[in-house]
Structure formats: C-alpha cells, structure tokens
## 1
Amino acid sequence: MKKMEANNFFNQKNIQQFNPAYLCIVVLTFFFTVCCSAQLQQSRFDSLIKQYQQLNWNGVLLIGNKDKITYSATLGFSNRETRAPMQLNTAFKTESVGKMFTAIRILQLIKAGKLSLSSSVAKLLPDWKIPNADKMTIQHLLTHTSGLSSQWEHPAYEFGKIYTRNDIKKFIEEAPVIFTTPGERSYYSNSGYVLLEEIITNTDNMSFEESIKKNVFYVAGMQQTRSLNDSVLPSNAARPYYQITEKLFSPDITKYGDGKASGAGGWISTAEDLFLFAQAYLNEKLLPRKWMEIQLTNNHTIDSNSPYRRLGMAVLKDKPEKTFIAGHNGGGKGFTIDVYFDYYKGDIVVWCSNQYGAAYELTGRAFAILNNKKYNKPIHADRIRLADWLLKQPTNNIPVITDSVLSQLNIKAANEFLFFSVFDNLTEVHEYRAAKAAISTGRERFPSSAYMWIKSGENALNLNEGVEAKRYFEKAFLLAEENKDSALITVIKQKIASCPK
C-alpha cells in the first residue's frame, strides 16, 4: 500500500502540498503552445495562398477535419471577364469526383446483400454487348481493371453533343478494348463507371440521380449538389478556363450535352458540399469502418501499380508513417477538383478551381502544412512556361525548342504530354505559329507517335497548308496500321478526306 501511495502523485499528502499556481502554469503553457501552433499553421496557409495568387490561380480552398472547417480561402475570379470574385458557395462542375459517389452506393448495395464484388457484368447487364463481360466483375469496374476504355474514345463521339442512353450504350459497346483479360492491368475507364450507373439503376429500381441523392447527398447534407438541367452552367457556377501562359486565359465554351451527371461523374457542386461529403465519409455516415477499409484496400488486396486501384477511391499518399491520404480528383472542361482526406488523422482538403490542371500540387502542399512538413515553392507548370517562351519569340519564323531552351526554362520532363498540352492550349487561342513549334518538336522527339503526326496535320490545316496536312495524316495512317489500331485508322481516314484537294 505504501509503495502505491508513493507512486501516486495525487495521494492525499501531495494534494495538500500541491501548489495550484503550478497547475495554472502547466495549463496556460499547454494552451499557449496549442494557440501558437494553430497560428503558425494559419500563417503557413496564408503564405501558400499568396504564392498561388501570384501564379494567377482561381479557386476555393477548404481545410479542416471530420468535425469542422479550420481554414478557408478564395482565390481569383469566378469570371475573369467580369472580374467577379470567387465565393465560398461558388458552384463547379466536379467531373470524376462523382466516381466516389457511385462507388459508395455500389458498396452500400453489396453490404445489403443485393450485389457482390464478384458479380459478373454479363449477369447484371445481359442486354449490353460488352466484350469479355462474362469475365468482368463489379470489382474490375470499380478498380479500372476491366479493360474498357471511355465512351469518347469511340471515333464517332463528339464532345458537347447531346446523346441518348442508347447512343452512349453503343459507344461503350463499340469503343476499343484496351486489354482482353479483366484484372490483367489498369486503364482508367469512364465507361466502367457508366456500367456501374446502370447496375445501380436496375438494382434500386429508380433513376441513378435519385438513388445517389437519397443514399449519398441527403445523408451527407449536400443540398447544393445536383445535375445540370441543360447544357448551360447555372448562374452561380464559375466560368471555366484553361491557363495558356502566365497571364493569358482561355474560357472553355463547351456545351455540356444534356447536363446529366453519370456514374463517371459530372455533378455540379460547391467546395462546402464536398467538404460535407468528406466529413460524412470519415464519420461513417455513408459506410461503416469495416466497409471503408474494404474500399480503401481493394478488399484487402492492395495493388500499388495505380493510384486508382482501390474501390472507387484514389490514393494521393500512402506512407508507412500512418499517413493514408485518399479521395478523388476531377478534371476536364476547364475545371479541376480535389477532395482528399487522411484516413488515420481525419484531416480534409477540398480544392475547387475553374482552371483546368490546377490540382494535386496545391492539395499536396496543404497536406504538407497539416503534417508540419516543408514543401517546394510553387511555380508555373512546364506547359505554361514553355507557351510563355514561344509567344515571346519573334513572329517572322517558327521558333526551335532545343535542349538548351528546355534547360533554360528548367523543364526536365520533356515528354509527349508536355508537347501535346502546349499545342492544344496554343491552338485554343489561335496561336498556330507557336503551336507548330511545339508539335514539330514533339514529332521530332517522338516520331513513332501517330498522335504527334495527327496534331501536326490539324495545325497545318489551321495554317492553310493543305499539302503538308495530308502528308502528316498519311504518316499517322501508316503508324496506326503498324499498331493495328483500327479505331485510329478510321479517324485518320476522315482527316485525310477533309484535306483540300
């Protein structure tokens, strides 16, 4: 007994001798430390925002945890032409973020015993003529390992055009298959999530939109999330843009088809609603912890060769030090959205931008601050620095992009995507001379890429160089034949036919 009392600080003797002033000092020191830490973190976030403001980024950033928002900021403009400032309740087209909603409803149905991860597509969608459907399962669709591509990879698909359900069905059935054995490897497939949409509709016996509203949005309290009613963005939505150079932006004037969200995404939402979704997920309102683990570990069969090989979630960071940052991104048609959370710590970062390509790095830096880590100062993307350089060159000839130029611009990853993106962005603002320099360099560095030759032909037509355009298309045709790419061959034949005689 005496030994126990000697080791018990709060025995009667010590209580009598304890100085209350000491306890006060301890408590005050604790709260002072917490407050200083919070202020330092706030200061680091403010500094991060200023750095991205200097890069002319637009967007809404929300940071917090499963209990509350601890930091919020708005950057730039929701409409650059009218100079309308970004607001916390500005709406954005969220694109592939919606895949999380689809996946969660599928897992809810599996939990209820109405579906199984091993259920075959052939059994669930017998009226769809999907290649290898008998070997393709729900798990393959969720993890982008089905071998399917995306409906817009069909040669006849036109962005912005209104299509019926039967049209989309036909595109998916006829679009090229990337590989024939489901589960063999990964290929990001929007078509797979359209099939999941059909499975949800059939299983719930209600429209896909109503099912997701009832089982995801209402549960999470997401009152500002919806499909578009038509092909025009609502008045509270940000106008979408592509950043061409440091100061040059091009608005995306795409019409959004019939405006309906699909299993692959496309919902209209706000940063505030997306934060509510992340909170609802972490607080187990959408799935119990057991099923969250099944989702984030791909049913305890993690395959690390793709960040998307979870069940409808993507992994931003997976490290041994108990950091597991998951969620999903969405990008396209002038928008970029990130919704990510730390599964262990409960931290949440939501970033919504009306500027395509403005993701990942800001979100990653926000998590670095949350984890008291350092980060590299943000700079303009390679494609923006290269486009800036091209447009500053004399207009009397086509500039040459040498290794020396790339080194001068500190561009280390001179891959195909760099030249494609610079070409597409410059074409968007009708800078065809500079676009020619970008795609010519790409063609010289990657001569076996049929797409480089196709882009070269497209730009030649823009410059009224019909003979050159046909020559480029014919070279692309030979490469497509070598690769036995029948879908691409069909596209190139159409382009050759479009050349002036």
## 2
Amino acid sequence: MKPIDYTKLENLEVEGIDTRDYPDFSDAYIGGAEIDGRKATDEELDELNEDRDFVYELVWERLF
C-alpha cells in the first residue's frame, strides 16, 4: 500500500476521547475518514492510527 497523503484527508472522525485520560488520550482513535473524496478502508484507518502523534493532534483540535 502506498503512503497516505495527509493533505487529501477530509471528514476525520475521532472516537474514544476520554477526558479522564488527560493528557494521554491513549484510547482515542480515528474511526472514519475520507481520502481524496472516498471512504478510507480499514487498512488505511489502521495506518492512520499507527501515527499516534497525528491522532493526538486531532484530539486536541476536537477538544479546543
């Protein structure tokens, strides 16, 4: 699988945010996304979720 182009990501759904887990938010994950206008596959979501720094940034964007 080729690397995901993060500039083409849209409609990211972040799930599992538990504010009691502040500041780690270790249970948060990307549950859905679109890549270049199409629904991301499970494999692509898995790849995105491996990038914990990216997920962490999304959590902060959603909270604040």
## 3
Amino acid sequence: KGSGVYIANNGSMSMVLMLMRKDGIETYTCTPWGQSADPASPHHTDQSEKLYSQRKFKPVATTPEAAVKMAVTRIELAAQ
C-alpha cells in the first residue's frame, strides 16, 4: 500500500470475434501483447503493435487447408 506499484494480475488475454454465416464460421483473434513470453522473440509484442493498437484482428484457420495456406513455416513431425 502506498508504494506506487500496481501489479496487474488479470485482464484481457485474448479477444475472439466469430461470425456465424450460413456457409460456415469466420473466426478472428487478437492477443493484446503477442504470442511469445520470450522478450527476444519477434512475436513477444507483435500483436500489440500491429493489431491491438489499431483495433484489428487476424483470421484464424478453421480447417487444415486454411492452416496450410496461412502457414509461415511448416514442421513435420514423425513418430519414432
């Protein structure tokens, strides 16, 4: 009390917008900060700068085909 320090331990973690249409569901998200907890990662605050501050959302892939189209990188896993 009275230290001038405020600890935020709850709040908005992710926003989701879903549009339900006759031909399917469109889904969009925005995470106020970024997708990585690593400060050295380029994704640490990327959504804050590019999306959240501009009140924009990014589309979510809802099918495997959409995920392949939207992928920036791809890693294939093999069973051992």
## 4
Amino acid sequence: MSKKNKYSTIDYGSYLGLDKLLDAQKLRSEDLQENPAHDEMLFIITHQSYELWFKQIIHELDSVIRVFKSNRVDEKNLGTSIARLERVSKVQSLLLDHLAILETMTPLDFLDFRSYLFPASGFQSFQFRKIENLLGLDEASRITYGGYHYASPFTEVQQKELLEIKESGTLFDVIEDWLERTPFLQFKDFNFLKYYKKAVEKMIAKEQEAIKMSSYLSEKEIEMRLRMLGTTDTYFESILNPKVHQQMMDEGKFRLSYKASLAALLINLYRDEPILHPPFKLLMCLVDIDSNMTSWRYRHAQMVLRMLGRKVGTGGSSGHDYLKSTGDSHHIFKDLHNISTLLIPRSDLPELPPALKEQLSFTYSRSVI
C-alpha cells in the first residue's frame, strides 16, 4: 500500500481538530437548571486550556529527560534543552496569567454552578501529576489530602504510568547525574575547596568586623547578628565536609548529592567563564521552573480563598489551606536555590589554573569517571 501524499491539502479546522475542540464545552448548569450559569463556560475553557498547556509541558520535559539520559550531553543538546526548559517557564507564566482571567468571575458567579461539580476536582488532573513526577517531586515531601495517596483518583493504568516515570528517571535524577559527571570535579591539581574555604573565612571576617564596628546596633543586636552570620562551621560546612552533607541528606535537609552540589556551586561561581554560560543558564531554568510552580500554588491558593473562603474543596480537600501548604513544601530544586547561601564575592574567587580552563568542555561523558 502506498503512503499518503505528504503534500495533500488540509484545511485549518481539520488540522486543529476544531470540531472536537470547540464542541468539548458541556455546561452542566445548562442541563441541570433552568437558566445556565454564564461563567461556567469561562471555568471550563480555562481548565481545558490548562490541560492543553500541561500536554505541551510534558512534551518538553520528556524530550529534555531523554537528552540527559544519553551517555553524552554535548553543547548542541545542552542548548536545545535550555531552549525547551525556557519554553516550559514561559508556559508556566502564561498559566499564572490564566488565573487573573478566571478571577474576573466573582464568588457569587462561581456559586451559580459549583454545586454541580462534586466530586470533580483539579486534584484529579492526571497530567499535572505527571508534570510533578517528571520534574522529580519527592514522594516524602508530598502533602496528601484526606489521607489518600496522590495517585488514588486515577486508574490502575495511570497509577502504573506515574510510578514508571519516577522509576525510569526524573528531571531531578538526570540533572543530578549530569552534574556529578562534570569534568572539573575530576581535575586533580585544582584544590578548589582549599581556596574556597579561605575565601569564605575572609568574607565572614569582613562581615563580622562590619557588624562589630556598627555605631547604631546595641550589644545585644550585635551578638544576635554575629550568631546569625555564622562561621565556616555552620551552613558552609555542608559543602566543605562531605560527611556533614550526607548527614543533612539523611535528615531530609538536602536532596542533591554532595558531588552534584559541589558542581552546581562551581558553575554558579564561575558563571562568567564563557564555557560555563550554558550550564549556568540550565541551572537557572530549573530554578525558574521550580519558582513558577511555587508561585502558581500560592496564587491558586489565594484565588481559592477569594472564591470560596474557608469552604471545603469540591474534591474533599481543605481548599485554601491544602494549596498553601503545597506551596510551602512541594519544592523540587530547592538545593539549587540554596546555592546562593554558599556564594562568595567575585573578587575572592579562586583563580582557575590555565590547564583547567583549557580542559573544560561542554561534553560531559559517563566514560570520564
């Protein structure tokens, strides 16, 4: 059988499947009450738009994960991955704007049809759970509602798919593996931590002196600020001492491995080296995506509070309180945010030896171990 002519004509509506798409808005209020609720159309279209954009996000995340699962991540693939992650971030920003459109509906407008939605809920969005799993949301960090597992609303086939995503390697997993393979971690003649510790001590000493010499702080305030400032034996020890880092991982305070954290710190500190621009940009994309997820959760929680007050959600959750708590806890790349705690001034950066600058490349190979 011959293939169809790849240049055969197609019209706009058929290509986009508009007959199905535009016929997919079924107002329950139209079937269940005499006067349809006008704003139910907005509610449906907004959520359908979300699901379409969720599909695009999944498409992008799948492709990036595949790139980082390969043995080599060269500069071309790194650039492609950055572009796709930036697209995810842009889509997330658009989804935040969707909430502003939905808020043109007043609480009374929503009550015109809300009673017809039980027990449907946004918690039943399978694609949103896929996105959380693809990004790498840690199971231990999840806040459940009603004592039920997050996957309980879904079919066995869907639950299996969610489990396979986690087991086959999430974005968090492949990025951690990539960071651990960065070549300068194997560079024997560059004792970065030795020079870094000296720079940290210099920075802290300078800040301690500024606090002590302050003319407007009381002795009690000086003591408090010095204690808050800490020393190399406090939060900096997590990067100076692998055992301390492991202990903090065991306590659930860190998730990213020591080697990956060290690589992320190096990339952040030496971001001005031309060859480290793409890796740094990639890490910032992940921070942006994580921040956008958190912003959306908080914004969603505020919208629910505005619309429903303290009413229970249609899916049985505590509504606003549940959504707000997920914003507090459902961080995925928190360790990348926390790298900022470990940064030192550019003027104090240990100088990279010429040989290291020469050997750095965009290609991180599993064979280099």
